[in-house]
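User: Can you fold this complex?
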Amino acid sequence: MVWFRKIYPRMILFFGVLGPGIIAANADNDAGGITTYSIVGAHFGTKMLWVLFLVTISLAITQEMGVRIGLVTRQGLGGVIRENFPIGWTLFAMVAMLVANIGTMTAEFAGVAAAFSIFGISKYIVVPAAVLFVWFVLYKGSFRTTQKIFLLFSTFYIVYIINGFIIKPDFAEAVGSMFRPTVEWTGGFMIAMIALIGTTITPWGQFFIQSYVVDKGLKIKDYKMEKLEVYIGALITNVVSFFIIISTAATLYKHGIHITDAKDAALALRPLAGDLAQFLFGFGLFSASILGAFILPTATAYALCEAFGWESGFNTNWKNGKIFYSIILSVIAIPATVVLLPNISLIKVMVWSQDINGILLPFILIFVMLIINNKRIMGEHTNKLASNIVGGVTILGIIAATVVLLGYSVAELM
Amino acid sequence: MPYLSRILNSKVRDTADVVVGRIKDVLIKPAAGKYSPLQFLAIKAKKGGVIYLPFEAVDNFSHEEVSLKLLFNKTGAVAQFPDGLVCLKRDILDQQIVDLSGARVVRVNDLRIGDFQGATCVLGIDVSFKGLLRRLGVSSLDFLDFFKVNFIDWRQTQPVKGFLKLNVVSNDLSRLHPADLANIVENLNVKNAQKLVASLDAEAAAKVFEEMDAEMKKALVRQLPPDQMAEILDKMSMNDVVDFVKQLSEQERNVILSHLKMGTIEKIRELIEYSNDTAGGLMTTDFMKVEPAMNVNDVVAEIKRLSPALRSLLYVYVVSPKDGKYIGSVSLRRILIASPTQKIGKLIKRYAHQATLNPNDSIKEIIRLMTKYDLNMVAVVESTNVMVGVITIDDVMRYLAPKA
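Assistant: Here's the predicted assembly.
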């Protein structure tokens, strides 16, 4: 097995380097992601592709900023905020992250429930089982292996790309809409648009990428490599998103089908999978959801503990790690409870949670922008003008969309 | 006596009732294991700029406003940052700090300032939730006094930022158990962890390294200079080094290895071939070997000489002086009760079946053998019967419970 020994370390190196890109790319397309992209395509056709195009650039730039802050400060975003902002602002940022993450976690459990609802299995069985499964894996510590398995599963997105070619959609039209801004001035459009932004660029993703480069011990000399990697990651994520949107646009939108549950969204895969479409979609939705469900509780707990100096890590005992474990348990239990409420629409939960992410995102990005433009923290690695423009436009864009959305909600109430 | 959070930003008045400015920071001289007297106040001057005012000029410090004993121009204030000092707000407040008494890492929510032997000093750090509320200006929320203030004695702490740059390390830090210290390093952010490990001497750092989790090791190896890293690896036990080096990428491995001694490199390259769950992968090559002709007295002298370099020493292994072939083992207990002139070769218990392991034996086989023969330590011999290492019960435990 000499060849294996020769190849194996190389493989490790390859996966090691591509780590954050692949994980971030896959985890971005979680339950909320798949559902939001499906709805965007099904309800608005290719009209929103220009948003996706811009968001790809924003994602690449914001993730790159996270990488740079991590490489320079060699600590997580929570820690950097705590050490450089008044404590009230720290609390504000961390609460924003906590709320957004609880929202995302709710989407993950809703995703699990929706996936199994395709096979007629009740959420009252599935969600508690998922809660136990997640807790068991986290606490018993086979996290790494499990994560790898689900990363592998979640390559299921490739089916959307193949599917996209089988449908033979009008690619010229699709690419054209990427550069043709179209806006429907309705509340529904705004909700879908903010969700689209909020599911692609997320507060937790910002925390995640920074911790990742810090924990891997990367240094500023690795910057070029990591930057490239983050750009590729952003591209991969959104190529998949692009194909989900054109798949649903070419199937559901064309026939005027609105998505009200997971079965509807699965219809988009019929051209490729025929009668297996539902099974395939259910499987993909489940693995995407559960992957996010593994990462979020611990990521949230580590970030909060870092900012406030509470003991963290699964090697601490219950007494010392009280707060750490409590955060993890809350981030699992609260979302699960929400999903178990009777008569709640799983699809709406998945989309609205992305809206919460989207609405909270500008606040986190403002912190990121303030940090990365601070010479005292970043030294010579502060932002260039181009990054500041992209960051600024992203922040202002989301805030503007949120204000318009609020306007519509108020108008509807009156 | 006041909290730092209450003092920051208060007005400073001199004896002519002129407002000099507002307090921006408080400077102390870092000293390990002592209450640190306040040295200077950093004042954001009314006219702009920052001035450093010697603390002796302060008359009353306990109020919201700080008053001076003298006219401002007689205080000896300087515009230059005084050398070798540490700022309480910039370097301590909101930073990570090591609580030596609890062997943990905490964040400083506030600092308690008070009198000690006639000097105004930092007495303790507040890490409590109550401290957070105070900082947020909402202490009144806790009118039922639900949360308790929780101070850590200043002398029992090791600040990281500022202190380690000036090489001020508390003795109590090196008195912590390596496992606790490793836990502390894991909880610090990578920047601080690197500073802390760099401040330890190679021997202490090696012990800490052995206890650290693999991820933190990998992160640190990229942060520490290769020569310093090599010095630490040199002091670590061989099987820990091998386990660690195995996880590095080929490129990183080569960089680190190139800084080690030739003999060590060869040994590592040899051991690296064994898989982690075999006897060869688990064993350590540091063990006590003696020749059969030595008498007990000489063996005891040899034990005394080599003991500091060996992690565990339960048995002495008797090997042939010619070719290094395994002859047998003698427990310390047997050596202890034997007569000093007895030949060590004669103390070996001889059984028909030799209870040793082969480097390729699986973990199952290791456990089976150690359990069957009630061994805490077992010799690993190659098929030619040359002894190459030992496996202790610790190695097996570490394999079975890697996260503990």
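Residues 57 and 390 of chain A are 8 Å apart (CA to CA). The interface with chain B takes residues 9, 12-13, 16, 73-76, 79, 82-83, 87-88, 91, 141, 214-219, 306-309, 311-315, 320 of chain A (CB under 8 Å).
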